[in-house]
Amino acid sequence: MNKIFIFLFSLSIATISLAQTSRIEMLTTGTKTSIRGLSVVNDNVLWVSGSNGTVGTSIDGGKHWKWMQVKGFEKTDFRDIEAFDGATAIIMAVDTPASILRTTDGGQNWKMVYENKTPGMFLDAMEFWNSEAGIVIGDPINGKIFIARTFDGGLSWKELPEQFKPAAVKGEACFASSGTNIRALDRDEAVFITGGAASNVFIRDQKIKLPIIQGTESTGANSIAVWDHQKRNGGNKMIVVGGDYRKDSLSTNNCFYTNNRGKSWKAPKQAPHGYKSCVEYITEKNLITCGTSGVDVSNDGGETWNIIAKEGFHVCRKAKDGKAVYLAGGGGKVAKLVQ
Questions:
Q1: Distances in Å between the alpha carbon of 195 and those of 18, 139, 249, 286?
Q2: In the chain, which end has fewer C-beta atoms inside a 10 angstrom radius, N or C?
Q3: What is the mean pLDDT of residues 280-284?
């Protein structure tokens, strides 16, 4: 009995100490933009995008920045960005009209690769499996969730035929809060989530109701992360976060995880603190989540969460090729997780 107690006590201390060793290092702040798009190519190359047509990029891990305002899009909100290297990136303008632009020269010039002027169009997030295949998701039009695909690195996009678009109930939509409500599930499948009047997870033709808080336009799932999506049958482990962005200190039913590809969902023993707009796997056991309520980390696969910063951020992303984790948010804030 004593040995068991000592083991559990030691495990608890280890979990707490790991959380205490993590901190947020601010890299830049003060620009008049709210950043929700973040793409981390490797430990040194990262891109951000946000309001006022703003895009930023760094090639030295955030020590120095190149900021630009895309010409002709000075009032546009670029809610998501996907970068492939220091020169090539794709940005997504949410509405009026919904647009996707691409650069191959570090942001000096941008080419319009997609535009949709349909009334009610609102793009929410992009995801890429590799440098060629990608997907973009948008709010429902006539009760069907908008989806378009690219197979040439974002040079062209083709809308999914109407009969294959997933159906949504009235008041159900996607939150364009961090560009992470759609993720690669394995090598050729994607998974996405909704919120509002209803909150569901969609996997191909499956629509699975989430136990997360929902029912009003400010509640529901905001972000989903997938572990080990590179395998053809990967993506069994997933986690979703959200809450109520109008009551961002509320922690009730704001996080759930699955170990069986969405068949069942579990709540953490200790939930993240408040509303969260983004969640990211760092390793299979180590995760980070952020929102206007602060930054939390987990060292046990999402079972328990500990707050490490009260500073609010919209998005957190791990390097595609590397170990670095960056965050971004309002007021032009970009930061780095230090462990």
A1: 32, 11, 18, 26
A2: N
A3: 97
